[in-house]
Amino acid sequence: QVQLVESGGGLVQPGGSLRLSCVLSGPNLRSYGIGWFRQAPGKEREGVACMTHSDDSTYYADSVKGRFTISRDNAKSTVYLQMNGLKPEDTAVYYCHTQIYWGQGTQVTVSS
């Protein structure tokens, strides 16, 4: 069984930055891609960024392109989401996801 534990969320002012972390544990972690998703109140969960397992290619939602960066540290079994230029509309619970597994989420609030 794969477990994912997110951290790094918090309250930040518009224009600020946060780095989310997702620590993974379990078998075959490098055999699957991984992604970050978010869900704002009253809205459906949406994909934000993902990374393939084959060559670490990255893909981003148009709404975050140029502001967010997904990366991974295999030695630490950790995936990161660096978020810069945060906007109020980025406020959501952010989830890490691989295979059929989800983390518990971490709240990001962008407000002045």
Structure description:
With 112 residues, the chain is mainly beta. Helix content is 0%, strand content 51%. The chain has no helices and eleven strands. It has strands at 3-7, 10-12, 18-25, 34-39, 46-51, 58-60, 68-73, 78-83, 92-98, 101-102, 106-110. Strands 2, 4, 5, 6, 9, 10 and 11 form a seven-stranded mixed β-sheet that branches. A four-stranded antiparallel β-sheet has the order 1-3-8-7, with no helix packed on it. Strand 7 (68-73) and strand 8 form a beta hairpin. The chain is globular. The chain starts with a strand and ends with a strand. The model has no long low-confidence stretch (mean pLDDT 95).
Question: Secondary-structure blueprint of this entry?
Answer:
Layout: E1 3-7, E2 10-12, E3 18-25, E4 34-39, E5 46-51, E6 58-60, E7 68-73, E8 78-83, E9 92-98, E10 101-102, E11 106-110
Q: Roughly how many Å is the radius of gyration? A: 13 Å
Q: Report the helical percentage.
A: under 10%
Number of strands: 11
SSE run: EEEEEEEEEEE
Largest sheet: 7 strands, mixed
Mean pLDDT: 95
What would you call the structural class?
mainly beta
Q: Which word captures the global form? A: globular
Determine the number of helices (DSSP H or I, runs of at least 4 residues): 0
Low-confidence stretches: none
In whole angstroms, how far apart are the ends? Answer: 40 Å
Strand content: over 45%
